[in-house]
């Protein structure tokens, strides 16, 4: 089959790789109909994650069940599913508590980053391909309602649940002022998800005008990073935001989140960290009683209710799709997404 293979920083090639095969009885093969490029794919693309080149990229995929292993009980051939970015068993200590990103069977495995991020599975495939082998398929795949099309469903694989997780961890209360730092696709999903909790205002901070414009369409007050502090203080009688959500995964926006949260407020980080350590402002956090929440989103646990919200029209991520490219153009997809050119926001791939 054809797949997008990571060969090294800024070197993504679409080439022939062996077809995925069922290795474990709980596996299923999904024929991918839509995949997406994610901000976290840019970490290896920039040389910023300890990956071993040669793996199939992609952890956001929607497709059709093609084959199921003998122990797959619920999933049936021909069903249309979204594949959660992190496979999970659905049955261990963690999965039963909804903390599926800590699944003890898969060990925080994520599709599309090669062996070093395959957790206890040892090996996982990627979704930027014609097909993928999905471990623990009965749980990792979610059967889609007919009214949620592939392009909207692609957001359920990772970034809509991730944005939702960021909003949930922020403990947003009705009437709050929420500031979202970073209006890439995850930040914009956090803007959408934050709206579900009834804030009075969502201030969306980003340096790119076209992304601020999208944030405005989702009901946020868009501001440039340079004006963020003044706008947030003006909006909150000088206190700072009740909740700051960091949606980039780097030090500068996280610093800005800590600098703009009110005393007693919460900083919630959902950007995947590009660096292993951060100079945590421990004195400020202590003196100002700031709660810091961070984590790999429990994607699969959030999919059912988010799918329902899309189905009923309460959430619509479709405006985030800026490009739908054939799989063969994946390298160009990475270039425009990384370079913020051609108005790139969410780039989908069509195998
Ligand atoms: Zn992603
Ligand atoms: Zn589990």
What does this protein look like?
The structure is a single chain. With 351 residues, the protein is of the alpha/beta class. The protein folds into 2 domains: 2-158 and 298-350, Medium-chain alcohol dehydrogenases, catalytic domain (Quinone Oxidoreductase, Chain A, domain 1, Alpha-Beta Complex), CATH 3.90.180.10; 161-294, NAD(P)-binding Rossmann-like Domain (Rossmann fold), CATH 3.40.50. The chain is built from 12 helices and 15 strands. Strands 3, 4, 5, 6, 7, 14 and 15 form a 7-stranded mixed sheet that branches. The protein has a 6-stranded parallel sheet with strand order 10-9-8-11-12-13, sandwiched between helices. Strand 14, helix 12 and strand 15 form a beta-alpha-beta unit. The chain is globular and about 60 Å long. The protein starts with a strand and ends with a strand. The mean pLDDT is 97. Bound molecules: zinc ion (2 copies). One zinc ion binds next to helix 2.
């Amino acid at each position: 089959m054809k797949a997008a293979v990571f060969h090294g920083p800024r070197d993504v090639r679409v080439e022939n790789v062996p077809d995925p095969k069922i290795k474990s009885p709980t596996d299923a093969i999904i024929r991918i109909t839509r995949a997406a490029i994610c901000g976290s794919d840019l970490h290896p693309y920039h040389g910023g994650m300890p990956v071993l080149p040669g793996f199939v990229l992609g952890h956001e995929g929607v497709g059709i069940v093609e084959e199921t292993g003998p122990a797959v009980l619920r999933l049936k051939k021909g069903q249309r599913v979204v594949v959660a970015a992190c496979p999970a068993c659905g049955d261990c200590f963690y999965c039963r508590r909804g903390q599926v990103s800590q699944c003890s069977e898969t060990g925080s495995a994520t599709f599309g980053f090669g062996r070093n991020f395959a957790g206890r599975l040892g090996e996982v495939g990627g979704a930027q391909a014609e097909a993928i082998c999905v471990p623990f398929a009965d749980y990792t795949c979610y059967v889609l309602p007919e009214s949620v099309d592939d392009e909207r469903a692609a957001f359920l694989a990772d970034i809509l649940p991730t944005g939702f997780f960021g909003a949930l961890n922020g403990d947003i209360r009705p009437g709050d002022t929420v500031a979202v730092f970073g209006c890439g696709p995850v930040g914009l999903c956090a803007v959408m998800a934050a709206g579900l909790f009834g804030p009075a205002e969502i201030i969306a901070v980003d340096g790119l005008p076209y992304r601020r414009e999208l944030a405005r369409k989702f009901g946020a007050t868009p501001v440039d990073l340079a004006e963020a502090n003044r706008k947030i203080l003006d909006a909150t009688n000088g206190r700072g935001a009740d909740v700051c959500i960091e949606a980039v995964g780097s030090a500068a926006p996280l610093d800005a989140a800590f600098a703009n949260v009110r005393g007693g407020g919460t900083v919630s980080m959902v950007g995947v960290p590009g660096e292993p350590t951060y100079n945590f402002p421990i004195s400020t956090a202590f003196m100002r009683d700031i709660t810091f929440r961070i984590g790999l989103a429990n994607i699969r646990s959030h999919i059912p209710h988010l799918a329902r919200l899309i189905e009923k029209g309460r959430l619509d991520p479709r405006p985030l799709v800026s490009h739908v490219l054939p799989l063969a153009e994946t390298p160009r997809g990475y270039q425009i997404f990384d370079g913020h050119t051609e108005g790139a926001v969410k780039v989908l791939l069509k195998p």
